[in-house]
Specification:
The complex is a heterodimer of chains A (309) and B (270).
Chain A: H1 3-16, E1 20-29, E2 32-42, E3 47-51, H2 58-65, E4 73-78, H3 86-89, E5 92-95, H4 107-115, H5 124-130, H6 146-158, E6 164-168, H7 176-191, E7 195-199, H8 203-209, E8 212-217, E9 220-225, H9 227-233, E10 237-242, H10 247-251, E11 256-262, E12 265-270, H11 273-283, E13 288-294, H12 297-308
Parallel strand pairs in A: 3-7, 3-8, 5-6, 6-7
Antiparallel strand pairs in A: 1-2, 1-4, 8-9, 10-12, 10-13, 11-12
Chain B: H1 3-15, H2 21-40, H3 43-64, H4 77-106, H5 109-115, H6 122-149, H7 156-168, H8 170-183, H9 189-203, H10 212-215, H11 222-233, H12 244-269
Helix pairs in contact in B: 2-6, 3-4, 3-6, 4-6, 4-7, 4-8, 4-9, 4-11, 6-7, 6-8, 7-11, 8-9, 8-12, 11-12
The chains are: A alpha/beta (309), B mainly alpha (270).
Chain lengths: 309, 270
């Protein structure tokens, strides 16, 4: 291979290398495995949503990536280096849960302070404008509401022009407008090539922002893929119609999981939606208001984690 | 496991560079600056630590004990009282810096800072500089009061030597405070801080005569050694009882022991 080709090869490799990686990682607390042989990679420029019920291992995974804890087994890498190496964290922004910043400093001062840790941070006023916290900038952090504090923490997370951003439940406590501003900023960062790891309990947030979703349950990675792939993992569909057919009869049809009558409409949950629709139309010529819906991410998530339990 | 990815990743690792030395030093200074600002804006921290030393010096050192010829010790007692009350201005911000640390640990702030690219030891260095800064203000207020009251008989250069020695001498007390903050919760830290501070204030003979039974034990308190070091270096021979080398060794020992305990604990649990 020529030197030029080698350079191109390395450049391509660097572009494709995961910015954060857990490889066959196991982490135990006492005898309980918080993570059990989990392999999960964050690719450059993507938003990976890590979902899972409380105690699933999400916080442990993020703690490992950030060097806050070390694995019992497996390999953890951050920006192609060790998470324990400060150099690996120079390109990483962090927003954690349950953090109290210094109460007597203003939002602007917090952004200035965090900016000082980074190699090439945004100007403080640019960070304030980017994250839409102009109205809070001069106020003492301790005087802000819970949602406003999250906005300041988000500003501190993005001020260092991170190539990788960890956001742990970022929109908890935010009003709709602040949440929209945060989503818009996250999308802008993604457009600029930043990778994002997002944990959230708001599945619509993952649905709105994520390129990929990883579902953890009881320390195991039980599913991973695009939002569409996650949905398709769950083959159930929701059929809704106005029909005189008895729900008890529908329940006996093959492929039907459940059928109920709600506010005059028949609601059917089925694996074989097409077959059920054919039978419904055949059984009731007056059937109307027919609607077939793919399972939402929330329904897929609930089903996946139930199966893992 | 994607072994190839790790190997491949090394190429991008080469592209990243460490924070330049100038920016690293700037990060330490900015951390210390905002630590100081936060402390001075916290009324429960700033007001007592700045006001109490000068207030009790004026009350006991000037109005009550400052008049006349100073009894059996002569007029030189005013110098000893000035130095002793100044030491209190150093002990307080040093030891109680641990309360802030404990509160920050409770609030996961140290955990966040461990996840950020904060230069190594910046939190501890910032707390030490903040304590020295607050101590400098507190001792300066005592110096101003002493010069205005005109009771002290030592020269201004001697006052400045005592001032400078005490400011540097904040470090061992800060080490004790950080150990308290590293091992206790935010709600318990003030109690442990008082447990360390009150005996040091009352039992190291800084400003009140002690009974013989207690006087022989003053050597166990670092506050006694700091006072002795300051008086020794300023050449106030009337009230120096131990050599400056011995006092300095004790203070360095306290710094190494407690600083080491704090650093060890913080490295493990943040």
């Amino acid at each position: 291979m020529t030197a030029q080709a080698q350079d191109r090869f390395h450049a391509l490799d660097a572009a494709l290398a995961p910015v954060a990686l857990l490889a066959n990682v196991t982490k135990r607390y006492d005898k309980t495995a918080a993570l059990d042989d989990v392999t999960l990679a964050v690719r450059p420029g993507e938003l990976l949503a890590v979902l899972g019920p409380n105690g699933a291992g999400k916080t442990t995974a993020i703690g490992l990536w950030l060097g806050l804890t070390e694995p019992d087994d497996g390999i953890v890498s951050l920006m192609s280096g060790s998470p324990l190496d400060i150099q690996s964290r120079l390109d990483v922004g962090v927003m954690m849960q349950d953090v109290n910043l210094a109460p007597e400093l203003s939002a602007r001062e917090h952004v200035a302070l965090t900016s000082s840790y980074y190699r090439d941070p945004l100007a403080v006023e640019d960070t304030i404008a980017l994250t839409g916290i102009e109205a809070l900038a001069g106020k003492r952090y301790g005087k802000l509401s819970g949602g406003q504090k999250r906005q300041v923490q988000f500003a501190a997370a993005v001020c260092g022009r991170p190539k990788l951003l960890f956001l742990d439940e970022p929109t908890v406590g935010l009003d709709v407008q602040a949440r929209e501003t945060m989503w818009r900023t996250i999308r802008r960062l993604l457009d600029e090539g930043c990778s994002v790891v997002l944990t959230t309990h708001y599945l619509e947030e993952a649905e709105a922002l994520a390129d990929r979703v990883a579902v953890l349950a009881k320390g195991k990675l039980i599913a991973e893929g695009s939002v569409a792939e996650m949905r398709s993992l769950v083959s159930r569909k929701r059929i809704s119609c106005a029909s005189a057919v008895e729900v008890d009869d529908i329940k006996r049809w093959p492929g039907v999981v459940d059928a109920v009558r709600q506010e005059g409409a028949v609601q059917v949950t089925a694996f074989d939606a097409e077959g059920v629709v054919r039978k419904l139309l055949a059984a009731d010529e007056t059937l109307s208001h027919l609607e077939v819906k793919q399972a939402t991410l929330a329904e897929a998530f609930t089903e996946l984690t139930k199966e893992a339990a | 496991m994607n072994a190839a990815a790790l190997t491949v990743g090394a190429s991008s690792a080469r592209e990243s560079s460490p924070l330049p030395i100038g920016r690293t030093l700037r990060a330490y200074l900015i951390e210390a600056k905002y630590e100081m600002l936060n402390a001075l804006r916290t009324p429960a921290f700033a007001i007592p630590f700045l006001a109490i030393p000068v207030a009790i010096y004026v009350l006991f050192g000037v109005f009550i004990a400052g008049g006349g010829e100073g009894g059996e010790f002569g007029p030189g007692i005013a110098n000893y009282l000035f130095s002793g009350f100044s030491v209190i201005g150093v002990i307080m911000p040093g030891i109680f810096s641990g309360v802030g640390l404990a509160i920050e640990r409770d609030g996961n702030l140290l955990k966040l800072k461990r996840a950020q690219p904060l230069p190594p030891g910046a939190t501890i260095i910032a707390k030490a500089l903040m304590s020295m800064g607050v101590a400098a203000i507190a001792v300066t207020l005592v110096v101003i009061a002493a010069l205005i009251a005109a009771r002290i008989t030592i020269s201004v250069p001697q006052v400045l030597i005592i001032w400078a020695t005490l400011i540097v001498g904040t470090i061992p007390f800060c080490a004790i405070g950080l150990t308290i903050g590293a091992y206790t919760s935010g709600s318990a830290a003030p109690a442990y801080g008082n447990l360390a501070f009150l005996p040091m204030m009352w039992l190291s003979g800084l400003f009140i005569p002690l009974p013989d039974a207690l006087e022989r034990w003053v050597v166990i308190w670092p506050s006694f050694h700091l006072n002795q070091l300051a008086l020794n270096l300023a050449g106030v021979e009337q009230f120096t009882f131990v050599s400056p080398v011995r006092a300095a060794v004790v203070l360095v020992g306290v710094t190494v022991l407690f600083g080491g305990l704090a650093i060890r604990r913080l490295a493990r649990v943040g």
